């Protein structure tokens, strides 16, 4: 495709996304699904430019308003991004906006005037408000400012960069070195070990792992390092009985099975049959099918679930959440999630936490996890749980992971021994984990 044709595709994608406000990944998938003639290289560039428009959403809007430009559509934002981010000159834009087949219409006089106003400037400007600088809705900026204070700009700058590709090596199929050798044999280069997760590998973006022998043989799974760390903190041992109550596609279930060396029993539950079907296929490929059972449940009040009171050595609750810790991969989430959504999530999380706690045996552990950066879904909810459940005591992350780097556990002493990860500090998705042990004494409310 010509450069102009790729730009036209980005404009079409962006306008389609703003019209529907659908999930950005789904918009991209649908767009390319109906245009199979677009090659892989073109798809990558179109996708990257589209997601950049979303990552630059607030700043581009600010610049267009600052210049007195009345339009805020995909064409206007694409022009502004090409000048402010790509540093293209007026002549470069005219070469792309030609009106030829599949290319955008020629530039209008007012667009040329906009380009001249923006030339020599960058996306960032001292006059931009904090919410604009950090690419956040105002409500979310206010909430996160309470958590991060003066470090918020650095935190959000990290969330606004694309994530690398993380893999977990499945120890039921081989070692980390086995996986590296297999990937290198398939022509994969620049493979690095993750700094915290012992079975993790980090690769550049844009690689298709699904065609590699390591993936087909079940030796690797695609999984962010934060999720791998969460699995390690479950601290599963061979022979245990474990409940993964919100299993989804089963990524953490598979990690737990590997830690148990396939010996024991894992119940992977979810309310969506399609997710569990996919989890079942992944378990077979990973060689973990014998120790994992999938079960569809109606909700946290499911009759079968209620019959398992005090039954499990470990209960993992990777609860449904806002997902705002995955902004590196899903930059559009910040513009789709509102305060009402977070409050609704909190109500559901509280119910799941209560139901999960009831399933833990005396001396067993409850692991609460989210891929959210919102204190309401994490610390505040956990603090309420601690007030209500005197039969559970927090387990410091340092007790489970004694050799963890000092940057990993969140400071706060024995009263707040939670784990909070971020791309700025740890290079992972945003993630939160809290661990509790059910004591032999104490009484639930």
From TrEMBL:
<keyword id="KW-0694">RNA-binding</keyword>
<dbReference type="GO" id="GO:0008173">
    <property type="term" value="F:RNA methyltransferase activity"/>
</dbReference>
<feature type="binding site">
    <location>
        <position position="299"/>
    </location>
    <ligand>
        <name>S-adenosyl-L-methionine</name>
    </ligand>
</feature>
<keyword id="KW-0808">Transferase</keyword>
<feature type="binding site">
    <location>
        <position position="318"/>
    </location>
    <ligand>
        <name>S-adenosyl-L-methionine</name>
    </ligand>
</feature>
<dbReference type="InterPro" id="IPR023267">
    <property type="entry name" value="RCMT"/>
</dbReference>
<feature type="domain" description="SAM-dependent MTase RsmB/NOP-type">
    <location>
        <begin position="155"/>
        <end position="439"/>
    </location>
</feature>
<dbReference type="InterPro" id="IPR049560">
    <property type="entry name" value="MeTrfase_RsmB-F_NOP2_cat"/>
</dbReference>
<dbReference type="GO" id="GO:0003723">
    <property type="term" value="F:RNA binding"/>
</dbReference>
<feature type="binding site">
    <location>
        <position position="270"/>
    </location>
    <ligand>
        <name>S-adenosyl-L-methionine</name>
    </ligand>
</feature>
<dbReference type="InterPro" id="IPR054728">
    <property type="entry name" value="RsmB-like_ferredoxin"/>
</dbReference>
<dbReference type="Pfam" id="PF01189">
    <property type="entry name" value="Methyltr_RsmB-F"/>
</dbReference>
<protein>
    <submittedName>
        <fullName>rRNA cytosine-C5-methyltransferase</fullName>
    </submittedName>
</protein>
<dbReference type="GO" id="GO:0001510">
    <property type="term" value="P:RNA methylation"/>
</dbReference>
<comment type="similarity">
    <text>Belongs to the class I-like SAM-binding methyltransferase superfamily. RsmB/NOP family.</text>
</comment>
<dbReference type="InterPro" id="IPR018314">
    <property type="entry name" value="RsmB/NOL1/NOP2-like_CS"/>
</dbReference>
<dbReference type="Pfam" id="PF22458">
    <property type="entry name" value="RsmF-B_ferredox"/>
</dbReference>
<keyword id="KW-0949">S-adenosyl-L-methionine</keyword>
<dbReference type="InterPro" id="IPR001678">
    <property type="entry name" value="MeTrfase_RsmB-F_NOP2_dom"/>
</dbReference>
<dbReference type="InterPro" id="IPR029063">
    <property type="entry name" value="SAM-dependent_MTases_sf"/>
</dbReference>
<feature type="active site" description="Nucleophile">
    <location>
        <position position="371"/>
    </location>
</feature>
<keyword id="KW-0489">Methyltransferase</keyword>
């Amino acid at each position: 495709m010509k450069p102009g044709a790729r730009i036209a595709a980005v404009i079409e994608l962006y306008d389609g996304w703003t019209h529907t406000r659908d999930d950005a990944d789904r918009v991209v998938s649908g767009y390319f699904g109906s245009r199979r003639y677009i090659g892989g290289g073109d798809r990558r560039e179109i996708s990257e430019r589209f997601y950049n428009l979303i990552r630059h959403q607030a700043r581009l809007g600010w610049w267009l308003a600052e210049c007195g430009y009345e339009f805020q559509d995909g064409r206007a934002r694409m022009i502004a991004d090409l000048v402010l981010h790509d540093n293209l000159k007026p002549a470069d834009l005219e070469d792309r906006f030609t009106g030829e087949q599949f290319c955008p219409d020629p530039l209008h006089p007012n667009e040329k005037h906009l380009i001249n106003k923006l030339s020599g400037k960058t996306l960032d400007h001292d006059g931009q408000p904090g919410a604009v600088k950090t690419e956040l809705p105002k409500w979310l900026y206010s909430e996160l400012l309470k958590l991060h204070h003066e470090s918020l700009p650095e935190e959000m700058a990290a969330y606004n960069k694309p994530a690398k590709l993380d893999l977990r090596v499945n120890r039921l199929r081989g070692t980390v070195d086995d996986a590296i050798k297999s990937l290198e044999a398939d022509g994969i280069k620049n493979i690095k070990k993750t700094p915290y997760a012992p079975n993790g590998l980090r690769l550049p973006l844009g690689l298709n792992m699904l065609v590699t022998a390591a993936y087909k043989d079940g030796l690797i799974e695609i999984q962010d390092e934060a999720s791998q760390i969460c699995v390690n903190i479950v601290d599963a041992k061979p022979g245990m009985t474990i409940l993964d109550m919100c299993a989804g596609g089963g990524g953490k279930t598979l990690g737990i099975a590997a830690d148990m060396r396939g010996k024991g029993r894992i119940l992977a539950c979810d309310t969506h049959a399609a997710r569990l079907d996919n989890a079942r296929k992944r378990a077979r490929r990973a060689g973990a099918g014998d120790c994992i059972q999938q079960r569809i449940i109606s909700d946290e009040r499911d009759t079968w679930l209620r019959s398992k009171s005090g039954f499990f050595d470990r209960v993992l609750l990777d609860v449904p959440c806002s997902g705002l810790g995955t902004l590196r991969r899903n930059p559009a989430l910040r513009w789709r999630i509102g305060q009402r959504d977070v409050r609704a999530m909190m109500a559901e999380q509280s119910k799941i936490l209560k139901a999960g706690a009831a399933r833990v045996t005396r001396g067993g552990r409850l692991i609460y996890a989210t891929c959210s950066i919102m204190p309401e879904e994490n610390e505040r909810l956990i603090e309420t749980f601690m007030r209500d459940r005197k039969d559970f005591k927090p387990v410091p992350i340092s007790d489970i992971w004694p050799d963890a780097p000092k940057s990993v556990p969140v400071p706060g002493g024995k009263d707040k021994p939670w784990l909070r990860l971020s791309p700025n500090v740890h290079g992972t998705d945003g993630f939160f984990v809290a661990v509790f042990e059910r004591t032999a004494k104490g009484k639930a409310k």
